[in-house]
Amino acid sequence: MFADKSEIIKNNKMIKSPIVVEMIHLSKSFDNNPVLVDINLVIHKGENVVILGKSGTGKSVLIKCIVGLLEPDSGILELFGQNLNDLNEKELIETRKRIGFLFQSSALYDSMSVRENLEFPLRRQLHKLPNEELNQMISDALINVGLEEAIDQQTSELSGGMCKRLGLARTLILKPEIMLYDEPTTGLDPITSKEISHLILDVQNKYNTTSIIITHDIKCANLTADRIILLKDGICAAEGSYSELENSNDKWVHSFFE
Amino acid sequence: MELFILYQANMNNSNSDTTLNSKTPLKSGSRSIFQNFFIEVTSLTIFTMRFFKEVLKPPYEFNELIKQSFLIGYKSLPLVGITGFIIGLVLTIQSRPTLAKFGAESWLPAMVAVSLIREIGPAITALIFAGKVGSGIGAELASMNVTEQINAMQVSGTNPFKFLVVTRVLSATLMLPVLVILADAVGLLGSFVAVNLKGYVSASLFFSQIFQGTEFNDLIPATIKTFFFGFAVGIIGCYKGYYSNKGTEGVGKAANSAVVIASLLVFIIDMIAVQITSLFQS
């Protein structure tokens, strides 16, 4: 199936953009159970890549490897042209500052208020930031995700959708170059899911971030993906644009889009 | 050999939270109780070594240290104060008949003071501290682990070991001696109340007898050992919470085992401290 003209133009643009994530023969297993098998993947700057697959196929493991929470057993993983395994402690911290991670559970600091959740990464990364500037950044981040009125609330008072938004705001406040979304719409109603998907798109358009989105939500994938990768038993089973995969003759691939 | 390999693997992983896969503790798997015990001890030793490495390395988390000292120390004041008062009161009431039999009732304030300052105050306060603070730290860190808050900190470029573990262990180490001194003081007040329940003894006479019957040799070793008690409670609470299993069951287990192991360690440290003290005093 051929991609339409706009997709071809976009894909050409992507190819010209620098590579920000590259995986070469990446493998990872837990207790002799292979979770990722020989993954080869290249992601360009500004690209939105959606990773689809059934539960337990290694999607979350893949992005945890990218951010260094898990160590691959073999293969090469390069971020911004640097092999992750070659980085020392300080370099790894610096690299992590360029990556944002939205956890499936949002992972908000529950002992802190909304403001403190946003203040925490700022205070730690931008030590000498004046209070006025800090407040402005917090306010802007909350306006971006439509949570400006919740600034003084405790995280326990927020709904699931609001937690996702706050998690996103906290991740975006440091303006990362790569955003990793671990099932950003799971557990949300269709309207809120759509809002989150649009937020992901807005983020990409506004900051030209590279996004890797792990999801089961086909609507979210349709809205956000420049490219979709289908994982099956830890292997990259199919790759292409939404329309390419939707019209695939492969029964298994097609089953995701039914 | 297997233990050594596991030890080596963990040493490589435990350098810092910033290194890949560093939160993985030694895995116990399906081994004998004996092997699991040694793996646990090795893992705890590595965790403790890492604490000493991180505590000296900047940046220092002063704000978090003050916050934790407030939560761990100040918030424990009422519980420790009430317990200390009751211990002093009960100890006096229980000891009085025995001393009366020997006509040594006048020794009551000095005897209660020595017992409280040397042993009962530090030990009971440390056990209460293990129950309140040890379980609190264990449950808090375990729940942060379950909800991926520790991972979130790590991903945002913060060293969670330094921010969460170092500050809590330091606070527990510094706050317990203060709480023990308070418990001792309130315990003596309780003793004074108990003495006055049957008869009248003036405050000046009561406290002058205490000062005559006690020495710095009673206070200093007892205070020094409370630093070790505090450290044990803090490090065990953090270790259990930081390496807890996922799920709500893991939170409960972390809190529970933190209290049990910390309490046991308090007694072991106490036993060693008494031996060392008596060695010096003899």
Summarize the structure.
Chain A has 258 residues and is an alpha/beta fold.
Word description of this protein:
By secondary structure, chain A is α/β, with parallel strands linked by helices. Chain A has helices at residues 5-16, 59-66, 89-96, 114-125, 131-144, 160-172, 190-207, 218-224, 242-246, 251-255; strands at 19-30, 33-44, 48-53, 74-79, 82-83, 99-102, 178-182, 210-214, 227-232, 235-240. In chain A, strand 7 (178-182), helix 7 (190-207) and strand 8 form a beta-alpha-beta unit. The relative contact order of chain A is 0.17. The mean pLDDT of chain A is 84. Chain B has helices spanning 2-13, 33-56, 62-72, 77-101, 108-146, 149-155, 160-197, 203-213, 216-242, 248-281. In chain B, helix 9 runs antiparallel to helix 10 (248-281). Chain A binds chain B through residues 67-71, 84-85, 89-90, 92-94, 96-97, 99, 101, 103-105, 107-111, 120-121, 124-125, 174, and chain B through 15-16, 18-21, 23, 140, 147-149, 151-152, 154-159.
The secondary structure category of chain B is mainly alpha
**Total number of helices of chain B:** 10
- The mean pLDDT of chain A is 84
Low-confidence stretches of chain A: none
Shape field of chain A: globular
Radius of gyration of chain A: 18 Å
**Number of helical segments with 4 or more residues of chain A:** 10
Kindly report the oligomeric state of this protein. Answer: heterodimer
Intertermini distance of chain B: 44 Å
List the helices and strands and how they pair.
The complex is a heterodimer of chains A (258) and B (282).
Chain A: H1 5-16, E1 19-30, E2 33-44, E3 48-53, H2 59-66, E4 74-79, E5 82-83, H3 89-96, E6 99-102, H4 114-125, H5 131-144, H6 160-172, E7 178-182, H7 190-207, E8 210-214, H8 218-224, E9 227-232, E10 235-240, H9 242-246, H10 251-255
Parallel strand pairs in A: 3-8, 3-9, 6-7, 7-8
Antiparallel strand pairs in A: 1-2, 1-4, 4-5, 9-10
Helix pairs in contact in A: 4-5, 6-7, 7-8
Chain B: H1 2-13, H2 33-56, H3 62-72, H4 77-101, H5 108-146, H6 149-155, H7 160-197, H8 203-213, H9 216-242, H10 248-281
Helix pairs in contact in B: 1-2, 3-7, 4-5, 4-7, 5-7, 5-8, 5-9, 5-10, 7-9, 9-10
